[in-house]
Amino acid sequence: MALRIHKYGGTSVDGPDRLRSVARRLSADVGAGHRVLVVVSAAGHTTDQLVTMAREFCSKPPRRELDMLVTAGERITMALLAMALHELGIPAISFTGSQSGIITDTLHQDARIRTIRPFRILHELNRGRVVIVAGFQGVSEAKEITTLGRGGSDTTAVALAIIFGAPWCGIYTDVPGILTADPRFLPHGRPLKRISHDAAAVLSHLGAGVLSHRAAALARKFGIPLKVARSDAEDEGTWVLPNHMKEPPQGTESVELTMREVDPMESAKILSIALARPVWKLTIEQTIDAILSPAVPLEDLGRPLILHEEGTATGHSRHLIFEGDPPAGLPEGMAARGALALLSLVGEGTMVDPAVVDKARDALAHHQCRILGVYAQGLALSFLINKDESDAAIKVMHKTFIESV
């Protein structure tokens, strides 16, 4: 008996007809004798609508309360799908992320999965029920409801496939697979038959929306094949395979339904410490109108490595980090600070993990290296420091994150 893990995105569960279509597809797997575990997203634009609603009451909603609010979207979908399956005579039960045992760190709105303890899922699968899990959510080590950020349902599905040792995981969406071009800009792109984990991870990191970057990174880390396909058709779709695997899994692989311990599941592994490049910081104090239509030409200063904006009661301030040294003269309204350096940690996984940031802060503070700014961009976590402290900071970071591992 094989375990089938399905994930359905928001467009695939948007409305009664599409939910019933998903239910019929799941019932076919049940009829073939498979155990079925399903991860669902909130329907359509539900999450965006809930965030908009929150901002009608509060200009800057607390991140904890946003998590409490937006997780309602997935709960609605999972309960309705369970009812649709019951109507077809298929026993089913729905679980929230916390009921599923998905344990995360404490970062609201962008939490990382530490481990999963899916005892209730295992019990219900062994009873012959279809188990429906709300994607995108979990419970933190501090017993708070958390969400996993955009694309979090993909991450949930892949994480459960890892824990149960599933032969593969199906990601079902509104496109026929991973295409040769973004269909929003080039409608004639064709689906790829297969792609490597490495290539999928790069594509998703660079903005391809069909598969979340964190899900692609998890699949690559643990060697889980993925099938990306349309939810309303039997198209072959795209297989995302480990680099060593040339062909997708065949047949109805029978696996013993057990759990394996993976702790921590998502973590930030620092691979290297970039040199502390000399930089300078430009600060512009302007009103909102001036920001939207800047009168100051910045192109002569070069391309900024980092742009950071801060809002105030009277307007905005922009902070731009440029490589090299500041120019001799600047227009009125600009302030420059030189003799700075940008030290970057480059790694796999999340570079906004509070544990990584805190560890770096503590190490630098212990050696009297002052941090003037912290910036996370893609796979890099950068610290703005004084240039004369850069040599010591490199040694401290290397000892903390590389030599101690």
Describe this structure in words.
With 405 residues, the protein is an alpha/beta fold. It is 31% helix and 27% strand. It contains ten helices and 19 strands. The protein has helices at 16-31, 46-57, 63-87, 119-126, 152-164, 197-205, 213-222, 288-292, 354-366, 390-403; strands at 3-8, 35-40, 92-95, 102-104, 113-116, 130-134, 137-140, 145-147, 169-173, 194-196, 226-230, 238-241, 269-273, 277-286, 306-311, 316-323, 334-348, 371-377, 380-386. Helix 1 packs across helix 3 (63-87), helix 2 packs antiparallel against helix 3 (63-87) and helix 6 packs antiparallel against helix 7. It starts with a strand and ends with a helix. Residues 287-296 have low confidence and may be disordered.
SSE run: EHEHHEEEHEEEHEEHHEEEEHEEEHEEH
Which geometry do the CA atoms define?
A: elongated
End-to-end separation in angstroms reads 41 Å
Count all strands and give the number. 19
Strand line-up in the sheet with most strands: 3-6-2-1-9-11-12-10
Mean pLDDT: 86
Class per helix and strand makeup: alpha/beta
Q: Percent range for helical residues?
A: 25-40%
